[in-house]
């Protein structure tokens, strides 16, 4: 007997066959209609691109069935007319409304026991339509532009036919306006704002007066011309508010930013953006901005799906502070990127001086290891030794190859930053920047290693001449070589640990520099009542000026020194095999070990593998620290790399056409 296969039912045909009658007065039936419609778009699997394909089919289906478009419009309006819109307009998607501590507490609490939702709330309808916790993912995959097209096709407009909506929008406008005015009077805003007389010129306060005037005008049936003039004035003040926000943000590159100021700016921007949308609902003659509507739609779905996510909250609200830290690193990162042959050779020369200093750091570490002391104090003196060496490299304006990635990664991410220019980054220029970073990193590695290998060997030989015995010999010297071997030891894993520490030290450097700038540490030092009595004004100003320019780098270098110096001690303390491998230190240890063992007592093939191990250590130092710093820099700027899938192809084409640009700068032809 033949078993007949079930015929696959076309979801669009099934949707049409249901023939649900939608009415503005029947909210529940209209909501069921919208839930069924969203099933047409929702992907059934995690296959990439399925949501976009479903969306394309749905749009074609709507074009072929104008009646469905009309029903869809009525179903959406039924939700808007018969629902409480205030939570949607004043709260949803505005994440930092209660302060950081209270917001975190609320999210933890609602994770354990979710808040009860009012069925009359419009967000109840949104949760019914997008009930899965990952629905925001496919909504975002479809993209902003396609949702704009969708809303334009639906053709939502209010035009005074829905007074319930406009009345609620007016109340929402007053609520948001009061919040903006309150934030605009915060000390972190007033003292950094460009207006001279806060009492008269504060645009955050002005907008509240204008919104109240609009309410009075509409309630008293003011003339059409008067309403239009007032709305135009309100929009101008909104622009002034946003300019103040941007001005303060631009200044934080010099002045720094606090977490409190970051939260306030974040809230102001969110509330002002929402007010502009709400104002378009209040203004019945103004055409709805579908772009802003689509943005709100996507934000609300993400917020509702992730409203109890602690990680989402921390990621969103601390993103701008991370951006400021990344900006400080970007400025420094630009000096590590070479463009011309002259800069390239200067980089090699600077790295050679850095390598020369590292030679002494490695020698002193070996000598300190000979001194008998408790393990903690060994780790401490190692840390001080590293810190002094790294600070000396910084002060002499030398270069250490492994310090570059944490800073150049921010500079590379900066080329994708749409906050600073056009909305579409130039991916070809990004490929050029990557080639510059590659050759600059190559130059610094070369400069470090061509000094570290021979000079450390020379210093070990001089020690032997002066003291009549090698610095290390026999089994100890062989262990130094073995520690760099790629598979006889865990050197490559330890190199990854070092990459993490290099990244963390870069974050610390940016954070401290940001705090010094924001806290006006230099000016506070020069005005210190106790110091002014015992230190001359000139010297105090020099100290303040030095700290303003070098506090971040000092903190980063000292922290890196202690990370590296205490790593082995920490591993011994907890009984785990934890250690670090840093390419320049590893290269120096290889030279010391080779001298101690002797050229004749080790095979050429073994030494070749050890040298390859040292190069592998350098590669992993770079890869891990660059990757982590790049991820932080990209996330802090709100950049999504998946939006630029074509970049790898552009980079590959650029490499094929200009492969040598990744290793050395191209010679520029001078005009005759």
From TrEMBL:
GO cellular component, one term: membrane
InterPro entries hit by this protein: Aquaporin-like, Site-sp_rcmbase
Source domain of life: Bacteria
Xref: Gene3D superfamilies: Glycerol uptake facilitator protein (1.20.1080.10)
Key word Membrane present: yes
Record's subcellular location: Membrane
UniProt KW keywords: Membrane, Transmembrane, Transmembrane helix
Membrane topology category: Multi-pass membrane protein
Signal peptide: none
Keyword RNA-binding in annotation: no
Pfam families: SpecificRecomb (PF10136)
Spans through the membrane: 344-368, 374-393, 445-463, 492-512, 546-567, 604-634
Protein name as annotated: Recombinase
Organismal lineage: Bacteria, Pseudomonadati, Bacteroidota, Chitinophagia, Chitinophagales
